[in-house]
Structure of Cytochrome c oxidase assembly protein CtaG:
Amino acid sequence: MSAGDPGKGILKLVAISLGAFVFTFSLVPLYRIACEKVFGIRLDNSAADASAVAAAVPDERWVTVEFDGTVNSKLPWGFRPNATRMRVRVGEQYEATYAAHNNAGRAIVGSATPSVAPARASGYFAKTECFCFTAQTLQAGETRDLPVRFIVDPSLPADVHTITLSYTFFKNDVLTERLAAAAPSSTVPHSAP
């Protein structure tokens, strides 16, 4: 080996580290682009934007928002909206809640994925606060109301009169296993759900 080879190796390691760093920070904007452009999910959740939308309401337009909730078969939870529909004035903020119940004998972490129908209405449905923004942990037998705050943009196409907000909860295996590993070892062993 020549004396210059260790320097080249260090340069390669620095370049790989720098590349990994740049890739990691590019994931957030790439995720935003994928959600907003590809899937039509609007991720803007600022209260300032909610106030701006509310101030821009041109008239007394009302639409119906329907709520739906399901769970993936791997998640032993019950999950449903507390109200199945709501009449809302465009441009105003509203809150709806969903009830989640852990039927298992141990704590489980779940993550919710939202969808809006019809698809062309998704760009006009803004969630300003949502349980879907973070993973949810329910203890064994726990029931909790999960809120979602939203605004329907006044520029929603005129022929859209009903919007359906659906959520599907999935078991977050990684976070559930971390939670189980962190639990005191003196507990009784649990069977898998």
Summary: Residues 109 and 137 are 4 Å apart (CA to CA). The first strand starts at residue 62 and ends at 71. DSSP finds three helices and nine strands in the chain.
